[in-house]
Amino acid sequence: MKHTWVNIKNSETGGNKPVETYQDQLEQALLEFETSQQLRLDETVRSALGARGSALTTKKDRIYTHPVPHLSNHGSYIFGNISVPADIEDGKSDFTNVLFVATPNYLLTVLVDPSWVYNARFGEAVLNIYQQHADNGNESQVSKTLIRLLNICVSTLDHSLDSLNHRFRRSKEKIGAINVRDGKTLEQEVDKRYSSIQDLDIEINSLTTIIEQLEIMLSQIENHEIIISIRDSDFAFFDNDSRKSANGIRIQALHLVSYQRALVFDCASLIKKMDRLQEKALTLATHRITAFGAAILIPNLLYDFFGQTFTSGQSLPKIVLDNGWTISLALTASYWIFQYIWFKRKRYI
User: Fold this and answer.
1) What are phi and psi of 80, to 5 degrees?
2) How far apart are CA 50 and CA 134, in angstroms?
3) Does residue 306 carry a pLDDT above 80?
4) Disulfide: which of 123, 138, 144, 250 matches 218 by Cβ 3.0-4.6 Å?
């Protein structure tokens, strides 16, 4: 006989449900859960779920921007949260959460998307499992369904890291192709690439908490730490089969931890390289300004020296005295031609 699974979600294709509609569905689902299981949810749990009227109700945006995946036992039921990235872009990360309360034979999940994002990839995977369970599911234990949800979470995080890694590799290739001797191009590329690398670093680091907490959750399951009390007797919520599955998924989660830490290190190294390139670009910019200043100053000096009547008694050759302006114009033209060639070579213009 399959267990009961009720799923509430705040989003639908194209955006979020009306707030009141979602809130009414949530309140009804919580009431049915408490009534059927003959228990009362803690205020902290009701608050995290977003229940109406909770004295501890938190702002919804805290869930979106600061997800804390966890798994804990509360006497006769367990409470947890699974988080995956919903939108990672421009140095900002928002998350989709699956909050759940469960007894051995009743599972209530609350799928919460950020108000500005509909996470189709993860949400549809969860809904597919939910539909399969409703149509022909034969899982009698909630623990097995939770293991499947955790497995989807690992797969989604792996996909997110692959996407971030792909962006990192493309950025690294483009930065590696910069000609550091080309002053003009160097400045342009540093201006164009630097902020995007910093954004990528923030996005990669934003996954630290949810990946590490996911591994901790799986470790709790594997190590028999999730215990519930039924009729004054303690039972392990996850049976041996679920614990074995959790062990396999945890190995994948440990791989994600290493994967993400490697990306953090690589991105930090790339930022240091960009810092060095930025310093070099500033140095070249200083050289360019100095060169342009010289291009203006030296002709003035030539005019001051040659372009005068020399009546103060300088002992200069007659040709210089007679052709001062001509010589100064010729030297100025020659100097500017030389400067033009030099500027083009150094890519100052």
Assistant:
1) -160, 175
2) 25
3) no
4) 250
